[in-house]
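Collaboration report, partner site 2.

Our partner group contributed sequences for two proteins of shared interest, and the home lab folded both. The records are reproduced in the order in which they were received, starting with the first partner submission.
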Amino acid sequence: MMTISLAGALLLLSVIAINAIIHLPPFVAAVYFLLVAGLMLLEHIRRVKLLSLSWGLTLSWVCYRVVVLLAM
C-alpha cells in the first residue's frame, strides 16, 4: 500500500517543481491536489478489494491522510 503514497508524492512533487518555474495559481494547485488525492483513494479502494481486506483499512488510511494534511 505504500506504493500508493509514493506515487501520490511523486505526482505532487512534479507540480511543486512546475510551480517553482511557472508560478501556478493557487486554484490550479488545489484542484491538482484534490485530483491526486482522489486517484490515490480510488487506487487504495481497488487494492483493498483485490486483496479481500476490510474497509476499515481504507477508513484508517483516509484518517491518516487527513491528519497529515492538518499537520501541515
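Second partner submission, folded after the first:
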Amino acid sequence: MTYEFKVVAVGGTFDRFHAGHRRLLETAFQVGEKVLVGLTSDELVRALGKPHPVDPYAERERALRGFLKQRGLMERAEVVPLYDAYGLTTTDPSIEALIVTSKTAPAVDEINATRTSRGIRPLKPVMVAHVLAEDLKPISSTRIRAGEIDTEGRALRRSEPALPA
C-alpha cells in the first residue's frame, strides 16, 4: 500500500478512549506509513490543569495500545510520552505531517515556525473533523467524565423539560 506520508505524528491525552480518538488515529494510519503517537505524560497532564481527573499514563497507554493491536497497527506505530505540548514535532525532521482537529490546528503554525528556524521542513497539517455525539456536540473526555455521554457519544442523561410555574 502507498501512503501520502512516510512519517506522521498525532498526539493527545487519550483519556477515556472514545470514538473521536479512534477517528484521529484511523486517519493517521490512513495517510502515514509510520505513525508517532504522542501520549501526554502524567507530568504534562498536571501542567495543563485539566478541569477533571485523568487516568494515569499506564492506563491510557494500555487502552491506546489495545486499540492499535486490535487493528493490527502496532508494527507501524511508535507510542512516545509527551512531556511538552509539541514533543518530537519541533525536532524530528523525519515527521512530514501532523494530524490535527480544529482545536489543535493553531499549534501547527508555532511548530512550523520552530522547525523553519531550525532548518527543518514545515509539517503539513491533516485536519480531522470532530466526531459528534447524539446532541451534535463533539465527543470529549470531559463530557464523558461529566456523565453527559458515553464513549460512543450516546446521551447518558436527558435534561428534563422545565415545568411551567
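Feedback sent to the partner group on the second submission included the following. The beta strands are 5-12, 32-40, 77-82, 97-100, 124-127. Helices lie at 19-31, 42-48, 57-70, 107-117, 141-145.
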